[in-house]
Structures are given as C-alpha cells and as structure tokens.
From TrEMBL:
Pfam families: Urb2 (PF10441). This is Unhealthy ribosome biogenesis protein 2 homolog. It comes from the Eukaryota. Residues 122-318 form the Nucleolar 27S pre-rRNA processing Urb2/Npa2 C-terminal domain. GO terms for biological process: regulation of hematopoietic stem cell differentiation. InterPro entries: Ribosome_Biogenesis_Reg, Urb2/Npa2_C. The gene is urb2.
C-alpha cells in the first residue's frame, strides 16, 4: 500500500496521471496517516482549488463524475474533524480571496452545494470582514467579496436553503457597512445591486399566495426574519454615511418598481415599508420631482401611494419627535 501511494504530491501534479486516480490519491492522502506530506492540509486544499479552477477556466478536461467528486472532496475537507483539529491547534489554512470568490461562484451553480459549501465559504469571508483592516486592508479585496455576493443563489425552492443564503449575504453586507464604509461608497453600484437582490428575493418569496400554496408556519417565520433584516439594512444604509444618500432616489425607484409587480403579504410589506421610509427621509424635494418625472405610469402610482403614506404617517411622526426633542 505504501508503495502504491508513494510520491503522491508528484502524481497529483503529473499530467499523465488520470483524473480519477488523482482524486483517489487525494482522498487517501487526506485520511491516511501513512501519507506524510509537509503542510499536508494546505497542499491538498490548494490542489483541489487549483484543479477546479483549471477545469472551469477550460485549461483541462475531466469527466463530470470527477468534477462532482472534487466538489464533494472539497466539502469533506472543509467540514472534516481533521481540519477542525488542525485549526484548533493554532495552525492556519490560507485561502486567497480570489479563490474564495471562485468557490462561491462555481459552487452556487449546483443547488446541492448551496448550504454545504457556498454559504460556509461566504461566512468565512464575513468573519474576515468583521475583523476590519487588520485582516483585509486592501479596498480592492473588499470589492472582490462584493463581487462574490452576486453569485450566491437566492432562488432556492427550499426555504431553509434560501434563508441561510439570504442571511449570509446580509451579514457580509452588514460587515462592509460597519467596517468599510468608504469602500461601500466607492463601490456603491455593486453594493446596491447586492442589496437589491435581497429586497427582490424577499418580495418574490413574500407575495400573497392561494390557500393551497401557502407556506408552513416555520417557512413564514423564516421569511419574516428576512424581511426584518431588509428593514434593518435600509436603516443602516440610511444612517451609515450621508454621502450615500445621493443614491436614495435610485433605491426608492428600485423598490417601487419591484413592488408594482407583486402583492405582498401584509406582515412582509410592513417591514419593507418601514425600511424604505428611512431612505425617503433622505430624499429632498428635487429627488421627489425626479421620481415623479422618470417613473413609468404604473410605477409612479405605486410611488405616489407610498410617498403619501410616508408623509402622513412616518414623516409627520418624525417631525413631531424632533420638535419634542428640541
């Protein structure tokens, strides 16, 4: 056995070694104590990422079952007790942000990998983001993370998968707002696009349904949590940076355009409405005129209804509170 698996690292790199054999060798190397490689965990992790990257960049060809096997192998590595023990001993496994983006992008194409690989990959990036410039000091790297967020699937038929993906994207955006506000401003179109995906997905999932198509109580509660997170994000976007409010009218236009297409469940709509009110707080008279001029007829009616309720309920209450405070 030792003779068969000797020189594993060279065989993994050898172009003459068939891909099915490489995958078998890699699996053996990970689980076997007979295979001694310097920094074995990092070597095998890098090899797997490199193999997948080469395949998706069309630099190599491999059978579909090998591609699936590589993804399964990567998932096994990330969730293994062995890796957990290595990390708990103070050792580290390096993962370049571009590779992390690749993992999120490509794994998101396979629905079965969303919860086991795409979401954990994004959660790992979020941990780094929360540590601020101590871990990620280059603004471009934060933009790379924003790019990765756009690939996370938010259209799963399983509410549990949808909720986990939604929450992972939200937490990453939330970390960027708090730790990298200047990057958020510079990359505002990308940031807003990522956030709009959350808003749009909640509206799609939260539309009113027939009695025969109603979700379970557990699914409704999960969706309600997502709506609360959208409201929370609107609040933080509105308060994070004054300079960001130049895009307030654009955010309102996105919201009413999406709202015009669906009839939302009342409890979902209530949270989204409170959130968009915070954005309307920063819309000046010129913004309102701009919206009334540029929005299409059906969307304009939705906006006017929204702005009327905002003026009657939210704005008057806020002005009263400010007057009382003074």
């Amino acid at each position: 056995m030792a003779a068969i698996y000797s020189g594993i690292q060279l065989k993994l790199k050898n172009t003459r070694t068939p891909w099915p054999d490489k995958l078998k060798l890699a699996r053996f190397a990970w689980i076997s104590t007979q295979c001694l490689l310097p920094n074995k965990e990092q070597v095998l992790f890098d090899w797997t990422n490199h193999a997948l990257t080469c395949f998706y960049n069309k630099k190599v060809e491999m059978p579909p079952e090998v591609v699936e096997g590589l993804w399964t192998y990567l998932d096994d590595i990330l969730h293994s007790r062995k890796l957990h023990n290595v990390l708990s001993q103070g050792k580290t496994i390096s993962l370049r942000l571009t590779v992390a983006q690749f993992i999120i992008k490509e794994s998101s194409k396979l629905p079965s990998l969303t919860r086991v690989l795409t979401v954990p990959g994004l959660e790992a990036l979020t941990v780094l983001l929360r540590q601020g410039k101590a871990q990620i000091s280059n603004p471009h790297q934060v933009i790379v993370v924003l790019g990765a967020l756009q690939f996370v699937p938010l259209d799963s038929h399983c509410m549990e998968d949808y909720h986990s993906a939604f929450e992972a994207v939200h937490e990453a955006l939330f970390a960027i707002i708090h730790c990298y506000p200047q990057v958020m401003l510079k990359a505002s179109p990308t940031f807003l696009n990522c956030f709009y995906r959350l808003v749009s997905s909640v509206m799609h999932e939260g539309k009113q349904r027939s009695d025969t198509d109603r979700a379970s109580e557990k699914d409704r509660e999960s969706l309600l949590k997502c709506a609360r997170l959208v409201e929370r994000m609107y609040t933080h976007v509105a308060s994070a940076a004054e300079d960001f409010t130049v895009l307030s009218s654009f955010m309102v236009a996105q919201y009413v355009s999406e709202l015009q297409r669906v009839t939302l469940q009342p409890e979902i709509k209530a949270h989204l409405t409170e959130g968009i009110y915070c954005i309307l707080d920063h819309c000046v008279e010129q913004d309102i005129k701009f919206l009334n001029t540029t929005l299409q007829m059906g969307v304009k009616e939705v906006f006017n209804e929204l702005y009327s309720s905002y003026t009657h309920y939210h704005k008057s209450q806020r002005q009263g509170e400010e007057k009382y405070t003074v």
